[in-house]
Design goal:
This protein is mainly α. The protein has seven helices and three strands. It has a three-stranded mixed β-sheet with strand order 1-3-2.
Length: 232
């Protein structure tokens, strides 16, 4: 049943381990850089509002959201959501995160193509994600009688994998915009810039590993499908 799946299975496990390491490293970096005060004295909220103003964006609100590392930009209601610590903190970490999320707002305002593509995929994926795990499970359980359920599950899972890879240029571009702006605006010193860049790099690696993990999992299901088909 799992013919030729073993090597890919180990890749999935390896990706999970690497993901855990990177998440741990990101939390470690976040805690470290959050302790280092920003010489400009600006809070994450002030930095976000300033970046939006500098780009002529007046219809986006900066709000605080509960949790840690929960920062995100919501294009639906045009809000930059900063975690409570980032919203209030005056650190290199807060500056990096606030500017990064505003980078997404700038992408939205300038109709950045990859963000538009990702946003267009969201409605379909929100529905797919509810049923895909059950379809994949049914496909594996029914593989001796029919390959159709697993084939459908693989097709749906391929959409989530595509989404994870489309996310990569969106995240890297937002970080590039953020670092360029905080540097040009004098928000950070050269030393603080290095810390902000390092924090954003580790954050970006979580998306890279997530994309590779999704691809490895997709290949795992494909190998099961192909192995079963070859034995028919």
């Amino acid at each position: 049943m799992f013919y030729n799946a073993s090597p890919i299975y180990f890749l999935v496990i390896a990706a999970m381990v690497v993901s855990w390491i990177i998440q741990w490293r990101l939390r470690s970096k976040s805690e470290k850089y959050a302790q280092i005060g920003l010489q400009s004295g600006l809070s994450g909220r002030q930095i976000a509002e300033l970046m939006l103003a500098d780009h002529g964006i007046t219809d986006v609100r900066v709000i605080s959201t509960e949790g840690r590392l929960t920062d995100h930009y919501n294009p639906a209601d045009k809000t930059v959501n900063l975690s409570e610590t980032v919203y209030e903190e005056r650190s290199a970490m807060a500056a990096a995160v606030a500017a990064h999320e505003c980078g997404h707002a700038v992408q939205h305002a300038t109709a950045y193509s990859m963000l538009q593509f990702r946003s267009a995929m969201v409605p379909a994926l929100s529905g797919v994600s509810k049923f895909m795990p059950f379809i994949l499970l049914a496909g594996v359980l029914m593989i001796r009688t029919s390959l159709i359920p697993l084939g459908v599950g693989i097709a749906l899972f391929s959409l989530t994998t595509l989404f994870s890879f489309v996310t990569l240029p969106v995240e890297f571009d937002a970080s590039r915009r953020a670092l360029a702006w905080i540097d040009k605006r004098g928000i950070v010193t050269p030393q603080e810039h290095v810390m902000a860049k390092d924090a954003l790099w580790w954050a970006a690696m979580t998306y890279v590993v997530a994309a590779l993990s999704s691809l490895a999992t997709l290949l795992y299901y494909v190998s099961i499908f192909m192995g079963s088909r070859d034995r028919r």
